[in-house]
Amino acid sequence: MTDIFHYTRCPAPTSTGVSAGLGILQAGLRDHGLDARALQDIPDPEIRRHHFEHGIANLMREGGNIPAIWARSHGADTRLLGITWLDEFQAVIVREDSEFTDVASLGGHRFALPLSSGHRLDVSRITSVRGIQQALRYAGLGLDAVTLVDARDLRGVLPGQTGGESFDAELALLDQGHVDAVWLKSAAGVAALRSGRYRAVLRIDQLSDPLLRVNNGTPRTLTFHADFIAARPEVVRRILADAQGAVARIAQDRARLWAILAGETGQSPEDAEAAFQSFVPENLLPSLTVDRLAALQDQADFLLAQGLIPEHVDVAGWALDWNDLPNADRAA
Q1: I need a labelling partner for 169 at 20 to 30 A (CA). Which of 134, 182, 249, 325 fits?
Q2: pLDDT tens digit string along 162-209?
Q3: Rounded to an integer, what distance in angstroms lies between the CA atom of residue 8 and that of residue 58?
Q4: Is the entire prediction scored with pTM above 0.85?
Protein backbone atom coordinates (compact mmCIF):
# COMPACT_ATOMS: atom_id res chain seq x y z
CA MET A 1 0.00 0.00 0.00
CA THR A 2 1.25 3.48 -0.91
CA ASP A 3 3.02 5.54 1.75
CA ILE A 4 0.81 8.51 0.92
CA PHE A 5 -2.40 8.81 2.92
CA HIS A 6 -5.04 11.21 1.68
CA TYR A 7 -7.54 13.10 3.77
CA THR A 8 -10.28 15.45 2.66
CA ARG A 9 -10.76 19.08 3.54
CA CYS A 10 -14.33 20.30 3.51
CA PRO A 11 -15.56 23.87 4.08
CA ALA A 12 -16.97 22.71 7.42
CA PRO A 13 -15.84 21.91 10.97
CA THR A 14 -14.53 18.37 11.38
CA SER A 15 -12.56 16.60 14.07
CA THR A 16 -9.87 15.52 11.64
CA GLY A 17 -9.80 19.02 10.14
CA VAL A 18 -9.02 20.41 13.60
CA SER A 19 -6.41 17.67 14.03
CA ALA A 20 -4.82 18.63 10.70
CA GLY A 21 -5.03 22.32 11.55
CA LEU A 22 -3.02 21.67 14.71
CA GLY A 23 -0.53 19.44 12.88
CA ILE A 24 -1.54 16.43 15.00
CA LEU A 25 -2.94 14.35 12.14
CA GLN A 26 0.22 14.73 10.06
CA ALA A 27 2.51 13.88 12.99
CA GLY A 28 0.53 10.77 13.86
CA LEU A 29 0.63 9.51 10.30
CA ARG A 30 4.38 10.12 10.08
CA ASP A 31 4.79 7.89 13.12
CA HIS A 32 3.28 5.11 11.00
CA GLY A 33 5.42 5.84 7.93
CA LEU A 34 2.68 7.68 6.05
CA ASP A 35 2.78 11.06 4.37
CA ALA A 36 -0.48 13.01 4.91
CA ARG A 37 -1.79 14.83 1.85
CA ALA A 38 -5.00 16.84 1.64
CA LEU A 39 -6.90 15.50 -1.34
CA GLN A 40 -7.72 19.02 -2.51
CA ASP A 41 -4.00 19.79 -2.81
CA ILE A 42 -3.44 16.95 -5.30
CA PRO A 43 -3.27 18.31 -8.89
CA ASP A 44 -4.47 15.05 -10.49
CA PRO A 45 -8.26 15.29 -11.00
CA GLU A 46 -8.47 11.49 -11.15
CA ILE A 47 -7.32 11.40 -7.53
CA ARG A 48 -9.26 14.47 -6.45
CA ARG A 49 -12.59 13.04 -7.60
CA HIS A 50 -12.42 10.48 -4.83
CA HIS A 51 -13.52 13.24 -2.48
CA PHE A 52 -16.93 12.14 -3.77
CA GLU A 53 -16.37 8.57 -4.95
CA HIS A 54 -14.02 7.24 -2.23
CA GLY A 55 -12.72 4.60 -4.59
CA ILE A 56 -9.14 4.53 -3.31
CA ALA A 57 -8.14 2.70 -0.15
CA ASN A 58 -5.68 5.19 1.32
CA LEU A 59 -8.28 7.90 1.93
CA MET A 60 -10.12 9.14 4.99
CA ARG A 61 -13.15 11.33 4.39
CA GLU A 62 -14.80 13.47 7.06
CA GLY A 63 -17.31 16.09 6.07
CA GLY A 64 -20.73 16.47 4.52
CA ASN A 65 -22.79 13.30 4.50
CA ILE A 66 -24.14 13.49 0.94
CA PRO A 67 -20.91 12.41 -0.83
CA ALA A 68 -20.35 9.65 1.74
CA ILE A 69 -23.90 8.28 1.37
CA TRP A 70 -23.74 8.66 -2.42
CA ALA A 71 -20.45 6.75 -2.62
CA ARG A 72 -21.78 3.96 -0.40
CA SER A 73 -24.96 3.71 -2.49
CA HIS A 74 -22.84 3.40 -5.64
CA GLY A 75 -20.91 0.49 -4.16
CA ALA A 76 -17.85 2.10 -2.56
CA ASP A 77 -16.50 -0.33 0.04
CA THR A 78 -16.38 2.16 2.89
CA ARG A 79 -17.19 1.92 6.58
CA LEU A 80 -18.69 4.57 8.78
CA LEU A 81 -16.43 5.05 11.81
CA GLY A 82 -18.05 8.11 13.32
CA ILE A 83 -20.69 10.82 13.08
CA THR A 84 -20.46 14.36 14.43
CA TRP A 85 -23.28 16.80 15.06
CA LEU A 86 -22.28 20.44 15.24
CA ASP A 87 -25.25 22.51 14.08
CA GLU A 88 -24.35 25.23 11.63
CA PHE A 89 -26.21 28.37 10.65
CA GLN A 90 -29.04 27.47 8.24
CA ALA A 91 -31.65 30.01 7.21
CA VAL A 92 -34.23 30.97 4.64
CA ILE A 93 -33.72 34.61 3.78
CA VAL A 94 -35.56 37.25 1.79
CA ARG A 95 -34.62 40.79 0.79
CA GLU A 96 -34.80 43.31 3.59
CA ASP A 97 -37.61 45.14 1.77
CA SER A 98 -39.58 41.93 1.11
CA GLU A 99 -43.22 41.53 2.12
CA PHE A 100 -42.65 37.92 3.24
CA THR A 101 -42.54 37.34 6.98
CA ASP A 102 -42.38 33.53 7.31
CA VAL A 103 -41.87 30.40 5.22
CA ALA A 104 -45.60 29.67 5.00
CA SER A 105 -46.12 32.97 3.18
CA LEU A 106 -43.58 31.84 0.55
CA GLY A 107 -45.91 29.10 -0.69
CA GLY A 108 -46.47 29.56 -4.41
CA HIS A 109 -43.33 31.67 -4.77
CA ARG A 110 -39.76 31.22 -6.05
CA PHE A 111 -36.60 29.87 -4.40
CA ALA A 112 -33.16 30.03 -5.98
CA LEU A 113 -31.43 26.70 -6.51
CA PRO A 114 -27.70 26.54 -7.37
CA LEU A 115 -26.61 24.68 -10.47
CA SER A 116 -22.97 23.70 -10.95
CA SER A 117 -21.79 22.37 -14.30
CA GLY A 118 -19.25 19.61 -14.77
CA HIS A 119 -19.89 17.85 -11.47
CA ARG A 120 -21.06 14.26 -11.37
CA LEU A 121 -22.44 15.03 -7.91
CA ASP A 122 -23.80 18.55 -7.44
CA VAL A 123 -23.63 18.67 -3.64
CA SER A 124 -24.53 22.35 -3.40
CA ARG A 125 -27.73 21.81 -5.36
CA ILE A 126 -28.79 18.74 -3.38
CA THR A 127 -28.02 20.50 -0.11
CA SER A 128 -30.15 23.47 -1.11
CA VAL A 129 -33.03 21.20 -2.13
CA ARG A 130 -32.85 19.53 1.27
CA GLY A 131 -32.68 22.86 3.10
CA ILE A 132 -35.69 24.22 1.23
CA GLN A 133 -37.58 20.96 1.80
CA GLN A 134 -36.86 21.07 5.53
CA ALA A 135 -38.04 24.69 5.79
CA LEU A 136 -41.23 23.91 3.88
CA ARG A 137 -41.82 20.79 5.97
CA TYR A 138 -41.66 22.92 9.11
CA ALA A 139 -44.39 25.13 7.57
CA GLY A 140 -46.50 22.11 6.61
CA LEU A 141 -45.70 22.42 2.90
CA GLY A 142 -43.92 20.25 0.34
CA LEU A 143 -41.42 21.06 -2.38
CA ASP A 144 -44.26 21.18 -4.88
CA ALA A 145 -45.55 24.30 -3.11
CA VAL A 146 -42.76 26.47 -4.54
CA THR A 147 -40.97 27.09 -7.82
CA LEU A 148 -37.25 26.31 -7.91
CA VAL A 149 -35.23 28.63 -10.16
CA ASP A 150 -31.75 27.64 -11.33
CA ALA A 151 -28.88 29.88 -10.31
CA ARG A 152 -25.83 28.89 -12.33
CA ASP A 153 -22.52 28.84 -10.45
CA LEU A 154 -19.91 30.42 -12.71
CA ARG A 155 -16.93 30.10 -10.34
CA GLY A 156 -15.52 27.05 -12.13
CA VAL A 157 -14.63 25.09 -9.00
CA LEU A 158 -13.22 21.72 -10.05
CA PRO A 159 -14.48 18.39 -8.67
CA GLY A 160 -12.86 17.67 -5.32
CA GLN A 161 -11.91 21.30 -4.73
CA THR A 162 -13.58 23.20 -1.92
CA GLY A 163 -12.69 26.82 -2.54
CA GLY A 164 -14.96 27.96 0.26
CA GLU A 165 -18.71 28.27 0.03
CA SER A 166 -20.53 30.94 -1.93
CA PHE A 167 -24.17 31.87 -2.42
CA ASP A 168 -23.39 34.68 -4.86
CA ALA A 169 -25.37 33.18 -7.75
CA GLU A 170 -28.51 32.68 -5.66
CA LEU A 171 -28.22 36.09 -4.00
CA ALA A 172 -27.81 37.77 -7.40
CA LEU A 173 -31.18 36.36 -8.46
CA LEU A 174 -32.70 37.57 -5.20
CA ASP A 175 -31.20 41.04 -5.62
CA GLN A 176 -32.57 41.23 -9.17
CA GLY A 177 -36.07 40.16 -8.13
CA HIS A 178 -35.98 36.90 -10.10
CA VAL A 179 -36.62 34.86 -6.95
CA ASP A 180 -38.29 35.57 -3.62
CA ALA A 181 -36.13 33.58 -1.21
CA VAL A 182 -32.79 31.82 -0.79
CA TRP A 183 -31.69 29.06 1.54
CA LEU A 184 -28.14 29.49 2.81
CA LYS A 185 -25.89 28.20 5.52
CA SER A 186 -22.58 28.24 7.36
CA ALA A 187 -20.16 31.16 7.63
CA ALA A 188 -20.88 32.29 4.07
CA GLY A 189 -24.56 32.51 4.97
CA VAL A 190 -23.77 34.52 8.09
CA ALA A 191 -21.66 36.91 6.02
CA ALA A 192 -24.53 37.44 3.57
CA LEU A 193 -27.04 38.13 6.33
CA ARG A 194 -24.61 40.46 8.08
CA SER A 195 -24.54 42.65 4.96
CA GLY A 196 -27.87 44.11 6.04
CA ARG A 197 -29.47 43.56 2.62
CA TYR A 198 -31.40 40.48 3.72
CA ARG A 199 -33.67 39.23 6.48
CA ALA A 200 -34.09 35.70 7.84
CA VAL A 201 -37.67 34.38 7.90
CA LEU A 202 -36.59 31.05 9.43
CA ARG A 203 -33.50 29.87 11.28
CA ILE A 204 -33.53 26.14 10.60
CA ASP A 205 -30.59 25.48 12.92
CA GLN A 206 -32.65 26.78 15.84
CA LEU A 207 -35.62 24.42 15.35
CA SER A 208 -36.25 22.12 18.30
CA ASP A 209 -36.82 18.98 16.19
CA PRO A 210 -33.34 17.68 15.27
CA LEU A 211 -34.65 15.85 12.20
CA LEU A 212 -35.76 19.18 10.73
CA ARG A 213 -32.16 20.37 11.00
CA VAL A 214 -30.73 17.38 9.07
CA ASN A 215 -28.86 18.29 5.91
CA ASN A 216 -25.47 17.67 4.30
CA GLY A 217 -23.61 19.18 7.25
CA THR A 218 -25.92 17.93 9.98
CA PRO A 219 -24.71 15.35 10.81
CA ARG A 220 -21.24 14.89 9.27
CA THR A 221 -19.65 11.53 8.51
CA LEU A 222 -16.19 10.04 9.04
CA THR A 223 -15.49 7.19 6.64
CA PHE A 224 -12.54 4.95 5.77
CA HIS A 225 -12.16 2.42 2.98
CA ALA A 226 -12.62 -1.15 4.21
CA ASP A 227 -9.34 -2.23 2.61
CA PHE A 228 -7.38 0.33 4.61
CA ILE A 229 -9.14 -0.65 7.84
CA ALA A 230 -8.22 -4.28 7.23
CA ALA A 231 -4.60 -3.51 6.32
CA ARG A 232 -3.79 -0.74 8.83
CA PRO A 233 -6.21 -0.83 11.79
CA GLU A 234 -3.57 0.65 14.07
CA VAL A 235 -3.43 3.76 11.86
CA VAL A 236 -7.21 4.12 11.99
CA ARG A 237 -7.09 3.91 15.79
CA ARG A 238 -4.36 6.54 15.91
CA ILE A 239 -6.28 8.92 13.63
CA LEU A 240 -9.42 8.59 15.76
CA ALA A 241 -7.54 9.01 19.03
CA ASP A 242 -5.64 12.03 17.70
CA ALA A 243 -8.89 13.61 16.49
CA GLN A 244 -10.39 13.24 19.95
CA GLY A 245 -7.31 14.80 21.50
CA ALA A 246 -7.33 17.67 19.02
CA VAL A 247 -10.96 18.53 19.76
CA ALA A 248 -10.30 18.47 23.51
CA ARG A 249 -7.29 20.72 23.02
CA ILE A 250 -9.00 23.24 20.73
CA ALA A 251 -11.90 23.57 23.18
CA GLN A 252 -9.48 25.45 25.44
CA ASP A 253 -8.45 27.84 22.66
CA ARG A 254 -11.60 29.11 20.96
CA ALA A 255 -9.76 31.84 19.04
CA ARG A 256 -7.62 29.15 17.38
CA LEU A 257 -10.76 27.11 16.63
CA TRP A 258 -12.46 30.01 14.86
CA ALA A 259 -9.27 30.71 12.94
CA ILE A 260 -9.09 27.09 11.74
CA LEU A 261 -12.77 27.07 10.77
CA ALA A 262 -12.37 30.41 9.01
CA GLY A 263 -9.60 28.87 6.92
CA GLU A 264 -11.76 25.85 6.09
CA THR A 265 -14.86 27.89 5.19
CA GLY A 266 -13.08 30.76 3.44
CA GLN A 267 -14.75 33.33 5.69
CA SER A 268 -13.74 35.54 8.62
CA PRO A 269 -13.18 34.14 12.13
CA GLU A 270 -16.10 36.27 13.33
CA ASP A 271 -18.49 34.73 10.79
CA ALA A 272 -17.16 31.24 11.55
CA GLU A 273 -17.85 31.80 15.24
CA ALA A 274 -21.38 33.04 14.50
CA ALA A 275 -22.06 30.09 12.20
CA PHE A 276 -20.89 27.42 14.66
CA GLN A 277 -21.61 29.11 17.97
CA SER A 278 -23.24 25.94 19.38
CA PHE A 279 -19.79 24.28 19.56
CA VAL A 280 -19.01 22.16 22.57
CA PRO A 281 -16.42 19.37 22.36
CA GLU A 282 -19.04 16.61 22.38
CA ASN A 283 -20.55 18.00 19.16
CA LEU A 284 -17.31 17.50 17.25
CA LEU A 285 -16.32 14.11 18.67
CA PRO A 286 -17.14 11.29 16.21
CA SER A 287 -19.51 8.73 17.69
CA LEU A 288 -22.18 6.27 16.60
CA THR A 289 -25.02 7.15 18.98
CA VAL A 290 -28.55 5.97 18.24
CA ASP A 291 -29.73 9.53 17.58
CA ARG A 292 -26.93 10.30 15.14
CA LEU A 293 -27.41 7.03 13.27
CA ALA A 294 -31.16 7.72 13.01
CA ALA A 295 -30.56 11.22 11.66
CA LEU A 296 -28.14 9.92 9.05
CA GLN A 297 -30.66 7.25 8.05
CA ASP A 298 -33.26 10.00 7.61
CA GLN A 299 -30.88 11.77 5.24
CA ALA A 300 -30.13 8.60 3.28
CA ASP A 301 -33.86 7.89 2.95
CA PHE A 302 -34.47 11.43 1.67
CA LEU A 303 -31.77 11.04 -0.99
CA LEU A 304 -33.27 7.75 -2.14
CA ALA A 305 -36.82 9.14 -2.22
CA GLN A 306 -35.61 12.04 -4.38
CA GLY A 307 -33.89 9.66 -6.80
CA LEU A 308 -30.48 11.12 -5.93
CA ILE A 309 -28.87 7.78 -5.02
CA PRO A 310 -29.44 4.44 -6.78
CA GLU A 311 -29.64 2.05 -3.82
CA HIS A 312 -30.88 2.08 -0.22
CA VAL A 313 -28.14 2.67 2.35
CA ASP A 314 -28.53 0.81 5.65
CA VAL A 315 -26.70 3.18 7.98
CA ALA A 316 -26.55 0.78 10.92
CA GLY A 317 -25.04 -1.90 8.68
CA TRP A 318 -22.55 0.59 7.29
CA ALA A 319 -21.32 1.63 10.74
CA LEU A 320 -18.27 0.06 12.38
CA ASP A 321 -17.67 0.68 16.06
CA TRP A 322 -14.15 1.71 16.99
CA ASN A 323 -14.02 -1.22 19.44
CA ASP A 324 -14.70 -3.65 16.59
CA LEU A 325 -11.67 -2.67 14.52
CA PRO A 326 -9.46 -5.66 13.72
CA ASN A 327 -6.24 -6.10 15.68
CA ALA A 328 -3.08 -5.16 13.81
CA ASP A 329 -1.55 -8.63 14.24
CA ARG A 330 -4.71 -10.31 12.97
CA ALA A 331 -4.89 -7.93 10.00
CA ALA A 332 -1.31 -8.69 9.09
Answers
A1: 134
A2: 456 889 999 999 999 999 999 999 989 999 999 999 999 999 999 999
A3: 11
A4: yes
